[in-house]
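Fold sample X.
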Amino acid sequence: METKIEVDNLKCGGCAHSIEKGLLSISGVDKVVVLEEKGEVIVSHKPETDMKALKDELNHLGYPEVGTTEGLEKISRNVKSYVSCAIGKLENKLESL
């Protein structure tokens, strides 16, 4: 199966790396494609994959599904996405060494 999720705060390759790593750790997820320019995450997964777990992980990383956060929570997720982004960039650099 394939599921497309539109997310907030997606900015760059560092964000994409953090999202891929986080979602691939979930049971049943086979592949993750992040379309930075569209703010979309496409997840290939088994039918029994827990979709709530996917969306919770995105939210935890700072990339909630579009329209699911507001106010202080939205600001908090935006800040968290900057941290995830920085970590993703650093991991990309380390992997390329």
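Fold sample Y, listed below.
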Amino acid sequence: MRSIASALIVLSLLLVATGCGNKKNHAPLPPVEEETVDMTQYLPTVEPTYEAPDFEAPDIMGNPVKLSDYRGKYVVLDFWASWCKDCRAEMPAVKSLYTAFSPKGVEFLGVSFDTDLKALVDYGLENEIAWMQVCNQIKWKENPISAAYGLKWIPTMFLIDPDGVVAGVTFTAEEMEDLLNAQPDIK
């Protein structure tokens, strides 16, 4: 007990000697700047003006869904996973995007890279994700759909035009909203 008391006294003396707790002796700390990352290094190899690679994957009920089933409509193709921190952080904005643009005829198709279907279903229910989700339960870096699009980062979103051509690629719902608003035939 005596050694603990001695240690506390020594610590207190050190704090006083170094000026800790005395705000008058300290210069203000510089503001912490957020680090910005150049996301262009993560852009997929499939770019605007490319034909969107068609794929087939099961929905959460096991029914096959093809991207080409959506031909004739704009599609927001959202590559994500429920375990992905950045994807979860972006999900409220994607939900807002869905709420704003699905009434205008824009289709949303989530491609989940979850390997645990129950985790995907639970996340979707908890977060009230209302649009179609497909998941072949293959890790994203090993997934043939990911390879077809040349994905290097999730979340990544593609805007596919009614002709099946990539109209834009983004990492955020905010950027996707700008792309959708730039389309003259989406009102």
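Sample Y note: Helices lie at 2-18, 85-101, 117-126, 144-149, 173-181.
Also: The beta strands are 56-58, 64-66, 75-80, 107-112, 132-134, 156-160, 166-170.
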